[in-house]
């Protein structure tokens, strides 16, 4: 069998004409396979026409999408057998499926008698997906709310797939652990943000991104809002009821304020009320505080009772009766003592004092003429006044009168005390108190 390839000539009637010249003895069977440049064609038997002719293989080039992996496709473009009733089959080599790229395939068609024909074509499988076919879906809510200082940020993450359902790796930004290596973002230079701070109010954005094999990018953002809706708590330092002695200094132990979000707010506590430690009474102190979100704590109160249980303080003032004329002199309690009160700052000893007795260390009328031979040297003339005689025994060491009294403050607290009035022997020599042994008392 000799095969001649080439182009024929078209005659005036439009027929393709070519010449064949036999070179060997015997009968030749001539067949012409006429095809166009596009690959289509037909076989025409000339003379003598064989009893069985091979099939006609027709091919076409294919372009296929390969988004989801290897694909199958046939280049057969209507191959046939010119003999009526004859059966044939076509085999494509390689048979596929075909991965992304350009593949040259051969189509061979063979009839029942074993006669065959073939043709070639290309199968182009495109790579990747198209924009919009890759998806990224957030796991959980797209807007999450966390309680400041209470809740913990646990990133629910996201899921991304390509058009074929294949999972894609997700890159996270500002999640707190973007590269998911277990190292917090504040300590990991490979992370792009520290993530939501559950100890500080604010709105945080966590971004998720995935890229498919054709560099299509899909992303989503989750808004995480950290709110503070819980009020601070106040705790009294010390008891809720306190008693203070009037006149003492009162130091308020105050309160401690804590907030789950803002921490220690003790310095921001507002106190209302005041304790007057020198004025008897019951005082109420109230404490309140708010956090940065204007959540007010339940206020607390403290009751402070200022009570007066101490009597006045007495300071004696020595009195000297001179010259010793033997006359009765008026002596007021305020002449020989003064009083003060820690609660009231002052005390009117003349108004609040009471003489209880007056003693003399010399007898009222000693034997002889040294003391003037007088009687009634001590006379109580009022609650806080007396007449005292300016007389003494000239041969003694001077005369000392002792005034005993009680002074009360306005709360009724009493102080017992005494003061002295002296009649010296001479102006330059103070009298010496010999006690009550040689004297007397009134009453």
From TrEMBL:
**Residues in Pesticidal crystal protein Cry22Aa Ig-like domain copies:** 234-306
Which InterPro entries does this chain map to?
Answer: Cry22Aa_Ig-like (IPR032179), Ig-like_fold (IPR013783), PKD_dom_sf (IPR035986), SH2_domain_adapters (IPR051846)
- Which Pfam families did the record assign? Bact_surface_Ig-like
Highest taxon, organism lineage: Bacteria
| Positions with biased composition (Acidic residues) | 361-371
Q: List, in alphabetical order, the Gene Ontology terms for molecular function in this entry.
A: phosphotyrosine residue binding
Q: Which UniProt keywords apply?
A: SH2 domain
Q: Where is this region: Disordered?
A: 175-199, 356-376, 423-443
Q: What is this protein called?
A: Putative surface protein
Q: Which organism is it from?
A: Stigmatella aurantiaca (strain DW4/3-1)
